[in-house]
Fold:
Amino acid sequence: MKVLIVKTSSMGDVIHTFPAVEDARLNRPDVTFDWCVEEAFAGIVALHPAIDRIHTVAIRRWRKALFGGATWREVAALRRTLRDCRYDLVIDAQGLLKSALVARQAGAPIAGFDRASAREPSATLFYDVTYAVPRGLHAIERTRRLFGLALGYQPDLSILDSGVVPPAGTLADITGKTAFLLHGTSREDKKWPIDDWIETARLLIERGMTPVTTWSNEREKAVAEAIAKAVPSTIMVPKSPLADIAAFIGRSELVIGADTGLTHLASAFGLPTVAVFLATEPGLTGPRGSYASTLLAAPGGRVMPTEVVAEAERLLKRQALGQGGKN
Structure:
């Protein structure tokens, strides 16, 4: 059986789909999987060994030139490619109108959430079969249940395994006990203050760990440089391909991150991961993993560096004792 997964974005949503793929790999070894994803996240999808072919879309870019000839040529080429693959089933794991329209291009039966379960009920107009999955569950569990219903098995929700391991990368040769600080995120209200990152770096140095940070744009570069200037022992990794950053994160002792996709990746790797949430509610979309924890700022309050480092120490101790479990 040949199945196409449609989960185009964002990075965190893509990573949240990995446990469902791992369930299916174990329960349905007769099924092969391809994936359709936004071009920026193709490297993330490639981390899962069960994914054969990756098709990319560029919805964000296409929207900027919706009536351009180049856009429609790319869309037509995608449609031809998907139809040539002759899928037996498409699983729209996103439940949005845009993902349903992408799924439709494959010309195969589409399975997805029902109207009460989908994020955008209009998406279900394009599905051939729909399944009820409670909306009050974490995104990871919702997707695992959807895959199980679509492929005829019951996922074991008492365990959580993403099935991904860190890739080899040119940056992974930095040794020692490192703590990766993922300060970059998409919204200003999600960003932890620079002074708090600096104090966290200092506290980590006191505990024998080397802070590591990186950047992907000029604003993030300024933050990374400020941390490295205040705490000279900090390693500042230059802007690098996603695969190299993923390799470095995967070989870190600890990850401390804002509400950003790479923080979800760290938890998927099974690393001790402390996520700092300031403006978003982590209940249904926060990082999950054996050694993942989320610190949420109270309304009008803040998360202190001492809290973050204390939580990191707790997770490291639990990892050393082998006391993993669901979070």
About this structure: Residues 11-27 form the longest helix (17 residues). The longest strand covers residues 32-38. The chain has two domains: 2-151, 170-320. The two ends are 33 Å apart (CA to CA).
